[in-house]
Design a protein that fits this description.
107 residues
């Protein structure tokens, strides 16, 4: 149960980070409104706060979070940018999640 809660927290954390980076991208690269920087800042602040909610050591959390971030980033690519990940993307995600699982269960 703790593993599932941690995984969900990682996914929410990844969404906050991706959103915090995607909104400035829209402003810089697609000439969208600079007002997007305000929710981007809140999203990045939320990302930092969410990282503090993990009970494990900080370095371990960051290492394991990386695997989830990669997974969520590929899903974002698919859902938001309409680019379907390749089979090699999915294999890479599987390897990252396996590594994340090893790190988290070894704690």
């Amino acid at each position: 149960m703790l593993f599932l809660k941690t995984l969900i927290l990682f996914m929410v954390t990844a969404l906050a980070e991706i959103m915090g980076c995607y909104l400035p991208y829209l402003w810089l690269k697609q000439a969208k409104s600079a007002w997007l920087l305000i929710p981007a800042a809140f999203s990045l602040a939320g990302f930092v706060w969410l990282l503090t909610l993990h009970p494990q050591a900080t370095g371990r959390v960051y290492a394991a979070y990386g695997g989830v971030y990669i997974s969520v980033a590929l899903i974002w690519l698919w859902v938001v940018n309409s680019i379907i990940p390749t089979w090699t993307d999915w294999v890479g995600v599987g390897l990252c999640l396996l590594g994340m699982t090893i790190i988290m269960l070894g704690a």
